[in-house]
Design a protein that fits this description.
Blueprint: E1 2-8, E2 12-19, E3 22-26, H1 31-40, E4 44-49, H2 55-58, H3 61-68, E5 71-72, E6 83-86, E7 89-95, E8 104-108, E9 111-115, H4 131-142, E10 149-152, H5 157-167, H6 173-180, E11 188-189, H7 190-196, H8 205-213, H9 221-230
Parallel strand pairs: 3-4, 4-5, 9-10
Antiparallel strand pairs: 1-2, 2-3, 6-7, 7-8, 8-9, 10-11
Length: about 230
């Protein structure tokens, strides 16, 4: 399974997954760029879908379907663990509510397409209001191997690392992460996220001390998650 990343809007990221001559578009807002890539590589867009229903992610999907004859898969109809067949290779759908209640993540090969659930260096806003669901979704993603690559829905890396430095100024992993950041291809591994991303480090003693310093409870993992999510 191969993946191509496309930039559109101010900082949005969309994706094309392809195997053989078959392709799947996820958050296909970069319509013209995707169509050009399909032509250049002699690919047929078989399927198109989204990570969640926010307009900056669904924009372009219908246009791609109309231009290519691809089948549209409504992300709201997926079941957790459902697989999408792409030329004999599986793309697994995981339900990851939190940012929105309809958020999904796609797992294929050695990568995750996480939409606005997990960013490179941070996590999404909890627009759903359900922090417990968000916590469960983050734990689900953290259970994947550290070698899994994270492809997110936006490039927020510069702002995210600045905030991580503000919270944990002595974390040397942040500088190493920043040195590997490539604005032309935004990706990290889960191992790197566990070392840098404050919202994945809720069990790390450094983050526990930070939450405790704000007078917040840290007795359970969920309390520690809730605490770090509340710090601005």
């Amino acid at each position: 399974m191969k993946i191509e990343q496309f930039f559109y809007g101010r900082d949005n990221l969309g994706y094309l997954l392809y195997s053989g001559d078959s392709a799947l578009a996820i958050d296909g807002g970069a319509v013209q760029e995707i169509l050009a890539f399909l032509r250049l590589n002699r690919l047929k867009l078989e399927l198109a879908t989204n990570t969640h229903g926010h307009g900056d992610h669904t924009v372009g999907t219908r246009e791609l379907v109309k231009a290519t004859g691809a089948d549209y898969l409504d992300h709201r109809d997926f079941a957790d663990g459902q697989t999408i067949d792409l030329n004999g290779e599986a793309v697994t759908v995981r339900l990851t509510p939190g940012h929105t209640m309809d958020s999904v993540t796609f797992a294929a090969g050695d990568f995750l397409i996480t939409g606005d659930t997990l960013f490179n260096g941070t996590v999404g806003n909890c627009f759903s209001g359900d922090l417990k669901a968000f916590y469960r979704s983050i734990c689900l993603l953290m259970d994947y191997p550290g070698t899994m690559r994270v492809y997110a829905g936006h490039d927020y890396v510069a702002e995210s690392l600045a905030f991580a430095r503000h919270l944990t100024p002595d974390n040397a992993a942040i500088d190493r992460y920043a040195a590997r950041y490539d604005k032309s291809h935004v990706v990290s591994t889960l191992e790197e996220e566990r070392a840098v991303n404050p919202y994945l480090r809720f069990d790390d003693p450094e983050i526990v001390r930070l939450v405790e310093s704000r007078g917040l409870p840290t007795n359970t993992a969920y309390q520690r998650w809730e605490g770090i999510m509340s710090i601005e």
